[in-house]
Design a protein that fits this description.
Blueprint (H helix, E strand, L loop, with lengths): L2 H12 L3 H8 L3 H10 L6 H11 L3 H4 L2 H31 L7 H23 L9 H4 L3
Helix pairs in contact: 1-3, 2-3, 6-7
Length: about 140
């Protein structure tokens, strides 16, 4: 079950509307709809904790490895990083469609792909012109 489906299911069990959930969590109705209908994820990890508290579930239920990776990429590299992370996960899932690897090997492979992606983004930053870096990054480069 995907993140948005989990949120929708838990919200309906609690009997609250999308607007009420948004108000309780501190986000807009549009954000809640994005999670439930458009397959979006929270941009900050703290939001998962708040959602879990409001919805009465464990944070780990909402935050699987996939969501964790996408959220981390989003926090570090914005919306584009999140989309790249999703694309990587889709491509690696297609590789496992034949079922040749054990579950443990698939998880190990996926963890390594995630590490490689994040490392490559850090290395690529060295070659990014200063005018494209955020203000706080420009002073470090």
């Amino acid at each position: 079950m995907k993140f948005g489906e989990k949120v929708r299911e838990l919200r309906k069990k609690k009997g609250i509307s999308q607007t009420e959930l948004g108000n309780q969590v501190g986000v807009t109705l549009r954000t809640v709809r994005g999670w439930e209908l458009e397959g979006r994820y929270p941009k900050k990890r703290e939001l998962y904790d708040t959602l879990a508290e409001v919805l009465g579930c464990d944070t780990s239920y909402l935050l699987t490895e996939k969501e964790s990776f996408i959220t981390e990429a989003s926090e570090l590299y914005g919306n584009r990083g999140a989309k790249q992370a999703e694309h990587i996960l889709e491509q690696t899932a297609a590789m496992f469609a034949g079922g040749e690897l054990s579950d443990a090997d698939q998880i190990a492979f996926l963890n390594e792909i995630q590490s490689l992606y994040l490392d490559s983004k850090i290395r690529a930053k060295k070659f990014t012109p200063k005018k494209y870096l955020k203000d706080e990054d420009a002073g470090q480069a």
